[in-house]
Amino acid sequence: MNSLIQKYNIPGPRYTSYPTVPYWNKEGVTLENWTSSFQKSFKETNSSEGISLYIHLPFCESLCTFCACHKHITKRHEVEEDYIVTVLKEWKLYVNLLPEKPIIKEIHLGGGTPTFFASTQLKKLIDGLFVYAAKHKAYEFSLEGHPNNTTKEQLQVLFDLGFTRISFGVQDYDPIVQKAIHRVQPFKNVENVTNWSREIGFTSVSHDLIFGLPFQTKENIIETINKTKQLQPDRISFYSYAHVPWVKGVGQRGFNDEDLPKDDEKRALYEVGKKLFAELGYIEIGMDHFALQTDSLFKATQEKTLHRNFMGYTANKTQLMIGLGMSAISDSWYAFAQNVKTVKEYQKIVNEGELPIFRGHLLSEEDLIVRKHILNLMCHFKTTWNEVDKKSIDLQKQTALLTEMENDNLVEIKENSIHIPEHARPYVRNICMAFDMHLQKNKPETALFSMTV
Predict the structure, then answer these.
(1) 132 Cβ contact list (under 8 Å, min separation 6)
(2) SS3 content of the chain, % helix, strand, coil (to 5)
(3) Tens digit of pLDDT for each residue in 313-325?
(4) Is residue 327 classed as helix, strand or coil in its secondary structure?
(5) Which class for 276: exposed (0-12), middle (13-18), buried (19 or more C-beta within 10 A)?
(6) Which tens digit of pLDDT belongs to each residue from 326-381?
(7) Which three-class secondary structure state does DSSP give residue 450?
(8) Does some domain include residue 453?
(9) Which long-range contacts (CB under 8 A, 24 or more apart) does 173-177 make?
(10) 381 and 340 within one domain
(11) Could you give the CA distance from residue 415 to residue 278 in angstroms, rounded to a whole number?
């Protein structure tokens, strides 16, 4: 197994989308064809499954050096008002292009730090969305919270607005690791926000943990999970640290490369965590996620309805996801579109009455078929193809790329399907890469992706 990790631990996409962002077509999308795309998707699904909203709230008071998200560092909370006003203006621009009232099934507040915002501003945001929209009968609203600044008042206001799921970024409890990643937060803070969430009525509390951080050891992982055990979150995200300093520059240079555990050493951290989670009753879901059997993510796995998009794994599928805010990505299934990446430019364009799109991708027929199979592999670890698929893409060629992995007992290939056995799940990104037509046609010559294992 050690030699397999060294063999397959190569740079590769995480496949929160297909095609992955570096391979979006250079022409991107125009406002006109993006509008046509999301209108088409809206007409197909709004009255049945509804739509999702991802809202990017980018502000953070300090920079965490492990983070690869688009953020804006400031301690000036007066920025909240103008930003919320602009997001609601952007939403109104979308609503004006829709033929009927949107039905919102899912809202996710991501960041940045959503709990940077005062509860009054968060209420203004959510109330403002529903001036023009209705709630789906099976809605689920969620957010990301920082244990150091999430207040009980914020949690109560959000719960009253319909939020029932929250994830807290914990990362690691070791003080040396926390100092290296500039994310110092005592266990007591995590305990407080977890207990408050449950007291108020949140039905799913998640903790985000990361393995592969600077100075991290097996002992760190064991101690962090022992502390996590005391709080028993409903879900745990156990992410591999994505070291991509060429993308985020100084933000990921708060430590030296030699301070990071690598290859077998890094993978051992994951295996220790996975073993401990299993002992605590957590079931592995997709890639990097674990859930108790009472959580909706586990139920979605059992019912084969698990979905994956730019927000990660979700128990709710919607074909149309509209991203609001700086750098947010929208997905109509037929196209992707991303907003501009700075607060200043975002506010300028929206205030001029235009959608702030700066790039995107129109999916070809081939893209749509490959996307389906990669999504199946990421969610269910198997996929099956039909005659239409065979005519559209050269599946024989793609599966031939997996011959070596098949010889290494990492994938089972049949005439019309492939299956990833449980022991081979750490290699799911490598297996998906064999189907990635864009990657096969144009292999990167410079660093683009984090390591796969």
Answers:
(1) 91, 92, 95, 101, 102
(2) 45, 20, 35
(3) 888 889 999 999 9
(4) coil
(5) middle
(6) 999 999 999 999 999 999 999 999 999 999 999 999 999 999 999 999 999 999 99
(7) coil
(8) no
(9) 173/220, 173/223, 173/224, 173/227, 174/215, 174/216, 174/220, 174/223, 174/224, 176/215, 177/213, 177/214, 177/215, 177/216, 177/220
(10) no
(11) 34
Sheet architecture: strand order including 382-384: 382-384, 417-419, 412-413
CB atoms within 10 A of CB 296: 20
Kindly state the DSSP code that residue 241 receives in the 8-state scheme: P
Tokens linked to 442: 């144009």
Q: Answer for the pair 147, 205: CB distance below 8 angstroms, yes or no.
A: no
DSSP codes of every residue in 394-439: -HHHHHHTTHHHHHTTS-EE-SSEEE--GGGGGGHHHHHHTT-HHH
- Helix/strand/coil for 215: coil
Helices (H), 234-342: 245-248, 263-279, 296-302
Spacing of C-alpha 446 from chain mean position: 24
Q: Using an 8 Å Cβ cutoff, are 120 and 77 in contact?
A: no
What secondary structure does DSSP assign to 347-380, as a single string? HHHHHTTS--EEEEEEPPHHHHHHHHHHHHHHHH
CA distance linking residue 398 with residue 407, whole number of Å = 15
Mean pLDDT estimate for the chain: 91
Do residue 420 and residue 327 come from a single domain?
no
Residues 263 and 405 in one domain: no
Residues 251 and 389 in one domain: no
CATH code of the domain containing 357: 3.80.30.20
Is 431 within 8 Å of 377 (Cβ atoms)?
A: yes
Q: Is residue 211 helix, strand or coil?
A: strand
**Residue 152 domain boundaries:** 14-362
Beta bridge mates, 11 = 451
The pLDDT tens digits for 203-237 are 999 999 999 999 999 999 999 999 999 999 999 99
Enumerate the H helices of 233-295 as residue ranges: 245-248, 263-279
Answer positive or negative: Cα dihedral of 127, 205, 328, 136: negative
- Assess if residue 409 is contained within a domain: yes
DSSP letters along 102-154, please? -EEEEEEEEES-GGGS-HHHHHHHHHHHTTS-EEEEEEEEEEEE-TTT--HHH
Of the three residues 334, 362, 390, the one that is the final residue of a domain is: 362
Fill in the amino acid letter for 158. Answer: L
How far lies 331's CA from each of 48, 75, 164, 166, in Å?
17, 32, 24, 23
